[in-house]
Design brief:
This protein has 176 residues and is an alpha/beta fold. It has a single domain (2-28, 72-174), classed as Double Stranded RNA Binding Domain (2-Layer Sandwich), CATH 3.30.160. It has helices at residues 2-7, 32-44, 46-69, 74-81, 83-89, 144-149, 151-174; strands at residues 10-13, 17-21, 28-30, 92-104, 107-121, 124-130, 142-143. Strands 1, 2, 3, 4, 5, 6 and 7 form a 7-stranded mixed β-sheet that branches. Helix 2 runs antiparallel to helix 3 (46-69), helix 3 packs across helix 7 and helix 4 (74-81) crosses helix 7. The relative contact order is 0.16.
Length: 176
């Protein structure tokens, strides 16, 4: 719990990049539990949906535990990936609205990072949502079992998504 408190604080480096992880933002997982909940609803009523949500929350908890044990920090990953950007642009403000994983469609044992960053720099003030706004992404996903056991898998997969956001952000800046 203490780690979650630390992650909810503002992270600042070199007074050029400020990263805010919202207090309500914690690593999430959305997968097959929602579908199971809908199927269970026909037999159990609203309780079926609650069970489906609990399945996904249990998976998210396992991933958060691996992240905590490996000292994963979304703020650190963002800071590292945006390091070259703030040198070019000056002040960059990044608000982590949400982050986590979603099940890859058709392959429930694979997960894809899901992250929403609100980025403000120069004249850009925009929310970037991965993978929703990145249909051409070639990222294949990571096995759920790896995410539940290994913070390095979490770091690498989140870093991959954030790199794609950085590329899109720089493209938006250049277009201005």
């Amino acid at each position: 719990m203490f780690t979650m408190f630390l992650l909810s604080c503002v992270h600042v480096s070199d007074n050029r990049t400020s990263i805010l992880v919202n207090n309500s933002s914690q690593l999430t997982y959305k997968g097959k539990g929602a579908g199971a909940g809908m199927m269970l609803m026909s037999a159990m009523g609203p309780m079926g949906i609650a069970i489906g949500v609990a399945i996904d929350e249990g998976i998210a908890k396992d991933i958060r535990t691996a992240a905590d044990n490996g000292q994963f920090s979304i703020a650190n990953v963002i800071e590292q990936e945006f390091g070259s950007v703030d040198a070019k642009l000056g002040q960059v403000n990044i608000d982590v609205e949400s982050y986590g994983y979603i099940a890859k469609i058709g392959q429930d044992d694979l997960a894809i990072p899901q992250i929403r960053l609100k980025i403000t720099a120069k004249e850009v003030d925009k929310v970037y949502a991965y993978p929703e706004e990145f249909p051409d992404s070639s990222y294949e996903g990571v096995e759920l079992d790896k995410l539940k056991q290994n913070a390095d898998a979490i770091d690498l997969s989140m870093r991959t998504a954030i790199k794609e956001i950085v590329i899109r952000f720089l493209s938006d800046i250049d277009a201005m």
